[in-house]
Amino acid sequence: MRGVAKQHIFLLGDEPGVREVAKRILEGAGIKVTCFADPTTCLVRLRSQHCHLLITDLKMPGMDGIELSMKVKRLAPWIPVLMISGYGDIPTAVRAIRAGVVDFIEKPLDKTMFMRKVESILPTDGFTDPDLGKPSTPAETNVLRLALDGKSSKEIAKLLHRSTRTVDGHRSNLMRKLDIDNPIDLAKRVAAMELIDMTGKLDPGE
User: Fold this and answer.
1) Residues 8 and 104 in one domain
2) What are the pLDDT digits (tens) for 5-43?
3) CA distance 125 to 133
């Protein structure tokens, strides 16, 4: 399937039958699938594990797919969201797009249409940075706190008793994990995601 077999998808929905159908279709294409029955568990997993696509049902108890998508965009904005809906209407579609959903698929799932949408969203060049989406380490978080305070790499290195090269390495790792290429975007992304607790103490861990 055009290289999508190397990808990992998170599949969320409270209906076991829908999850099983979607999982069977995706695994038939060689895609790794991790299933979740509730949004909270899925969000917790996203904090520690990377996926290439999140597929979620629209209607779920407690938190619907649109609210979930808004939380995902704050937590992991690089992850695209495909929404499964039992019905389609324009107001719902508008709300979903504003929440960051990239596409819809209606129930019952049609295998051909479903895989066509999945393929159009997933990266197909066979390469994804393995660090993308990983949580920051304590050392990286310390560097980030100081960088956001306006400290240079040399100043940070002195404060943390590390070499300038090590500090620059931590900065580079953070930018790869967040899929950004300049410090200004890094600061904006951190603020949006609430990645760090600015009241926390520095951890000297490497």
Assistant:
1) yes
2) 578 999 999 999 999 999 999 999 999 999 999 999 999
3) 18
pTM for this structure?
0.62
Residue 48 lies in a domain: yes
DSSP 111-162: HHHHHHHHHHHS--SS---TTTTPPPPHHHHHHHHHHHTT--HHHHHHHHT-
Q: Token pair of 192, please?
A: 């949006």
Contact 56, 84 (CB under 8 A): yes
pLDDT greater at residue 23 or residue 106: 23
Whether residue 130 is preceded by a cis peptide bond, meaning omega within 30 degrees of 0, is no
Position 200 scores a pLDDT of 38
Domain of residue 173: give its range.
Answer: 138-193
Whether residue 91 has pLDDT greater than 70: yes
Residues 16 and 117 both lie in one domain: yes
Residues 43 and 86: beta-carbon distance below 8 Å: no
Reference 168, options 199, 191, 146, 197; nearest CA is 146
CB-based burial, 74-83: b 16+ in 10 Å, e otherwise: ebbeebbbbb
